[in-house]
């Protein structure tokens, strides 16, 4: 059976100006704009009722990959398949319906809410536009969601700017859930929440995974959260997935040197004032990524081969993939 | 041994601050009876429940509460100067030169139509007369210190072309370029992975050491607070419910809410199927419980909690707003502190 979502060798570049754009810029003396390969030929699948965690350092391409998965931006290369069907080949109407099954919780919560709508309108709109629930049931559905995200229904009449950061973030989560999707791409969904409300939201995600058979692509920099929610975890570095494994295997027996460094750097309560950067060396430029293995300038184990040849991913244990020459 | 700041200069002193949003329909008290002092070079961690008034405390200090919100009561002294009575010009000068804030949502504080370089130049020029060459050098240097690769190229980028964590760091860079006396950072590293975060924390510590900047670091992440702050204040429903030196407070919380926070950390709950979460109804807007605000959700509540508790001293440099504070024995959380 084909997975619910498959990203097949997808890539995405930014900053490649069209002919006119580049001509204009040169004319204005801005010089040639450089290209960022934000996502570099990534293959990843999310199965039904599965949670795939996505981690990696800031700027490595997680949000870009998430937005491709949610159908919000088109990949420059490769294919997005939902239930085995390539999205790019569908007619606009069919595509819209099929992408409705994939919803996104945005990283910048406040900026993603329409400032001219009340919370009620924000939550009802997708139901209304797609004629999802009978009109009489819509309000109940919204009220139920509000309770589950820990906000009183009194907040329904507010505008986004009257909410705190964490309240906005929870409205963003509720908005993604109203349409009863099959897959939710969550981009740092609990990053602004105190741990107690975070716990409530993570429990809610888990409940919905079981009761509605929901799947998640779960992007977070917080490794303890990712370890908590994920079935499988993918580690990204400079646009590529360098390791992918079942959660216990990844946290228990990390194979890729970058993953090892990432896990070692996690701050923990009690380990006070010892939060030190374990991944040493200057961060590579995404405009001009290192040849061979992207990680080689910072890798403690790098050998000559790493400087020249990009490692292929290899299965180091059942279901555990690592893209390292020494794996 | 954590440094003590008892003898250091007080740069900011907030006393009985009360900030409200008043409309015909209702009054929301966002900040209620908040008092604290901030010493030169000190980092105060501000933690608390979502919606408890952390950001509004920061906005109030900056004089940036938008109507219908207003500061209804209390005083804010910056080096002894009462900001409540300062002119709008003076406030602008203080914001430009002395007290800087990194706002919670970087997209709302960055201008979408200006390049990063232009925005940083604006900050530097507000501070003093400065040439183009120096502007460029200082901007690049600051971005590099905050771990942004290819800073020269990023100066030409616009905010929407940056990742979430890069935007946050640009906002931090703008605040730090000021070398402010007081830095208020509102959830500044929520999008940052641990390595980048460690780098930022290191830079902030340097800033405190070298320029004596005092910092209010608002964060929900107790591990970050533990690594960075000297002192912590915990907020619940608009009030500070507990405050004290960071190590003592995290090791042995006195307030039941603080303990609930510590016990909900995912890392402290490996192998548990459901994370512990607070029980009880979420209070309605404007409808704060009488007496102790945590009462509807507190396992220790009894008749004594029906009167509003006040902050009382409980150990050296520690205060708690609870009539039945936890003892050392109650406070230990299994697994939270390895
Ligand atoms: N619209 C855009 N135009 C130009 N460059 C972009 C655009 N969107 C993203 N990028 C670049 O692509 C790279 C990856 O960005 P992305 O937002 O996917 O990172 P991320 O992994 O989500 O980072 P973070 O953890 O900081 O949110 C970055 O170098 C970023 O500057
Ligand atoms: N313009 C406004 N009108 C009415 N209420 C408001 C307004 N702005 C904020 N509030 C309310 O004030 C309270 C405190 O908000 P604040 O933004 O300070 O919370 P916070 O502690 O920063 O929370 P978070 O961690 O979620 O960011 C919240 O309940 C919020 O809904
Ligand atoms: S391929 Fe070489 S440089 Fe890359 S992670 Fe493996 S050992 Fe390090
Ligand atoms: S005062 Fe009473 S209700 Fe409030 S936190 Fe203490 S024990 Fe709980
Ligand atoms: Mg992102
Ligand atoms: Mg806030």
Number of helices of chain B: 12
H/E series of chain B: EEEHEEHEHHHHHEHEHEEHHEEH
CATH topology description of the largest domain in chain A: Rossmann fold
Judging from the principal axes of the Cα atoms, what is the shape of chain B? globular
Radius of gyration of chain A: 21 Å
Number of domains of chain B: 1
Average pLDDT of chain B works out at 88
Largest interface: A-B, 77 and 75 residues
Q: Which percent range fits the helix content of chain A?
A: 25-40%
CATH architecture of the largest domain in chain A: 3-Layer(aba) Sandwich
List the secondary-structure elements of chain A in sequence, H or E.
Answer: EHEEHEEHEHHHHEHEHEEHHHEE
CATH superfamily name of chain B? P-loop containing nucleotide triphosphate hydrolases
Tell me the distance between the termini of chain B. 20 Å
> What integer is the average pLDDT of chain A?
87
What is the β-strand count of chain A?
12
Tally of separate domains of chain A = 2
Count of beta strands of chain B: 12
Structural class of chain B: alpha/beta
Q: So, CATH architecture of chain B? A: 3-Layer(aba) Sandwich
Features:
heterodimer, A: 327 residues, alpha/beta, Rossmann fold, 2 domains, eight-stranded mixed β-sheet, four-stranded antiparallel β-sheet, 12 helices, 12 strands, 35% helix, B: 338 residues, 33% helix, binds adenosine-5'-triphosphate, binds iron/sulfur cluster, binds magnesium ion
Describe the structure.
- The complex is a heterodimer of chains A (327) and B (338).
- Chain A is α/β, with parallel strands linked by helices and 327 residues long.
- Chain A has 2 domains: 226 residues, P-loop containing nucleotide triphosphate hydrolases (Rossmann fold, 3-Layer(aba) Sandwich), CATH 3.40.50; 72 residues, no CATH class.
- Helices cover 35% and strands 21% of the residues of chain A.
- In chain A, the strands form 2 sheets. Chain A has an 8-stranded mixed β-sheet, sandwiched between helices.
- In chain A, β4 and β5 form a beta hairpin.
- In chain A, α5 packs across α6.
- The longest helix of chain A is centred in the middle third of the chain and has 17 residues.
- Chain A is globular and about 65 Å long.
- The two termini of chain A are 30 Å apart.
- Chain B is of the alpha/beta class.
- Chain B has one domain: P-loop containing nucleotide triphosphate hydrolases (Rossmann fold).
- In chain B, 33% of the residues lie in helices and 22% in strands.
- Chain B has 12 helices and 12 strands.
- In chain B, the strands form 2 sheets. An 8-stranded mixed β-sheet of chain B has the order 6-7-8-3-9-10-12-11, sandwiched between helices. In chain B, strands 2-1-4-5 form a 4-stranded antiparallel β-sheet.
- In chain B, β7, α8 and β8 form a beta-alpha-beta unit.
- In chain B, α5 packs across α7.
- Chain B is globular and about 65 Å long.
- The chains are: A alpha/beta (327), B alpha/beta (338).
- Chains A and B meet through α4, α7, α8, α9 and α11 of A and α1, α3, α7, α8 and α9 of B.
- The structure holds adenosine-5'-triphosphate (2 copies), iron/sulfur cluster (2 copies) and magnesium ion (2 copies).
- One magnesium ion binds next to α1 of chain B.
